[in-house]
Design brief:
The complex is a heterodimer. Chain A is α+β, with helices and mostly antiparallel strands. Chain A has 17 helices and six strands. In chain A, α10 crosses α11, α11 runs antiparallel to α14 and α14 packs antiparallel against α17. The longest helix of chain A is centred in the C-terminal third of the chain and has 33 residues, at 363-395. In chain A, 46% of the residues are buried. In chain B, a hairpin with a 4-residue loop joins β1 and β2 (64-65). Chain B starts with a helix and ends with a helix. The chains are: A alpha+beta, B mainly alpha.
Amino acid sequence: MKRLVERSAEGLIKACGFASALTVLLIVFFLFKEGISFLNSSPVEDHHALFVHSGNPVTQLEEGQIKDLFDKKINHWKQLTDYGHPVVLLTANDLERLFTPEQLGNNLEYLSACVAHYIDTVPGTLAYFSERQLSLSPAIRIVPVPNISLWKFLSGRQWFPTAQPAAMMGTLPLILGTLLVSLLAILIALPLGLAAAIYLAEIADPRMRNILKPVIELLSGIPSVVYGFFGLVVIVPFIQNLFGLPVGETALAGSLLLAIMALPTIITVSEDAIRTCPIAVKEASLALGASHWQTIFRVILPYASSGITAAAILGIGRAVGETMAVLMVTGNAALMPTSLTQPVRTIPATIAAELGEASFGGLHFKALFALGCLLFLITLATNLLVERTTSKSRKS
Amino acid sequence: MISFPKQVDREKRLHQAIAFWIARIISYSILLILFLILFFILKRGIGVINWEFLTAMPIDGMTKGGILPAIVGTLYLVLMSMIIAFPVGVLSGIYVNEYAKEGAIKQFVKMMTNNLAGVPSIVFGLFGMALFVNRLGFGASILAGSLTLALLALPLIIRTTEESLKAVDDTFRHASYALGASKLRTIRKVVLPIAFPNIITGLILGIGRVSGETAPILFTVAAYFLPKLPQSLFDQAMALPYHLYVISTSGTNIQASRPIAYGTAVILILIVLGMNLLANFVRSHYSRKVKMK
């Protein structure tokens, strides 16, 4: 009996041992299940399609062209294909204006006939209807819309996930925005953090260090929403006044805030790396007549370089995944970033801001999960890189 | 010719002095900036905090009144997530340090724990929404939010447990085995009691971490405003970090709710400070006790 209890307890311990591995696998499964089903789905809403006159030679329409057509930026078919008619849009909203209720029938049973007749008389028509409501007739045909490909997802320059009739899911502005904000943050934080790490590890006397180190570690525990709030009430107005901008919520504000938030991590990790330098190596350098600073700069820093690299990568990984602080101070405009004093939108901020509005299981919802996959892959890659750089240094 | 090294020496000393001063100034500036952030928020928020602020419901579109529902919500979330994460995390740490043999499996488990620790909090939010809210059908609820937060805190607790167990000297284990105790009994009666104070610091830090997280609870539990306190695990709840986020960015009257926002930020900071100090206290108190023995 006692053996049995002991056995089952050990079984429980072993099962719990794989809790984190199981969690990672579950995250991968649920994230990618939604994210991958997003690729190869149509940008047009389910069961809906675009209809044209059968004489219209247009072979297919891209999301961008559809948006331009419906925004009336393209108003003649000649701009797209060899077809000499002006574009006339027809959607469910126009029905009341064009047809009487008697013509349409009580349950819209004559809708197909009405629309077919309309398209036949106005050959430039581009109609957007549910495929269920509209049956095909010889006069009209469906224009195919190519499915969303991985390439289009990553390289598209426009993010209009709720655009009708075809959503535009180009994440390039979001990817570039994320990279811009986090890389700049690390560029600011790394030299400062490194200087502080050198000070803590080599220059400060131990008593000072014993005070400073816990304080810095404590600051890394302040919730990101508190940093975001601080950014909102201090950094944002500061940048707005400094550059005379209409709004202070900019990429620069995000980078500054992320730099402040990344400092404790960078300081702690690179200080640990600097302290791994064996005393014999330092003594050898000093014995050769080098000053303490020369020893730090020429011997200790090169020795700790892989650890410092790890600190930088770790910092980038954290910055890329940071959500709330960035969401609160970067302005969240999904535009291609062109300057630092312009609002940008990052991948995590997009997910946080839009998931609440996306309908469950819809295209937008799946697109946000695909963004989550992207984010997961980026942070996984940074984690593996950190692990590789640190294990390399451990071996040497 | 002999004066040459002296000159070099002087130059060397000057370089060193300049470099050290730069490092010193940068370090103090960083500390100053971080303290200014804390001071700025504390100064504006500490006056807001009084008994009413802590115990009253929000009124007038959250521009007046207190933050009681947010405090209660965060308490529920912290309590529930720790009830889930602490036992699992400790058992997992025991497995890694005491049971797993050196080799591929141990490496794999450690790597997965590291990866889990690096997963961005918003991804936890997405995952929690997909699994707990939708697939398991908990809806946006305290249960779904706590489970999501528990997974987020798991690596922290696993790592602390692992470190604490590693710090227990092997002689204790050998002595216990020599007395005929089984492995499990040794862990239960010898290793765990020695390591327990350090393991508890993991729990304390986990509480600090979980109470400040916003992104994981955005879609799994957090409510903008609720007129009454949550009644069951399947209710939505307000929470301190989410409350700070909404009243500082999208409240009905952002300027009027600023004092409430400062007050909420101060409460969050105090929780984190308190948990860190408590963890440090437990750690130092314990190490003194060991020294006395």
